[in-house]
Amino acid sequence: MRAVILAAGEGKRLRPNFNRPKPLVPLLGLALIERNILTLRECGISEIIVITGCYANEIQDSLGNGEKFGVSIKY
Predict the structure, then answer these.
(1) CA dist 72 to 2, 18, 66, 75, Å?
(2) How confident is the model at residue 59 (pLDDT cuts 50, 70, 90)?
(3) Is 29 left (phi over 0), alpha (psi -120 to 50) or beta?
């Protein structure tokens, strides 16, 4: 089963507190998007497509191909 995560926003409303993309904002030791990925994996999702925008490189560098989460991630 596949899922899509929308991660293309700039996170303007979080500024000036955070200088990183909104999906990478930490919450209790994990980035918000990492929490989404782990929840999807727990629900049996093994393939995830992440829609990125202006911070695509930072998000891709952080998540990689999904191996560290036990899923497959494509962008």
Answers:
(1) 9, 28, 5, 10
(2) very high
(3) left
User: What percent of the chain clears pLDDT 90, i.e. is strictly above it?
Assistant: 79
Domain count, the chain: 1
What CATH number should be reported for the domain holding residue 28?
A: 3.40.50
* Mean pLDDT, residues 22-48 taken together: 96
Domain that holds residue 49: 2-74
**pTM across the whole model:** 0.89
Sequence-separated (6 or more) residues with CB below 8 Å from residue 39 = none
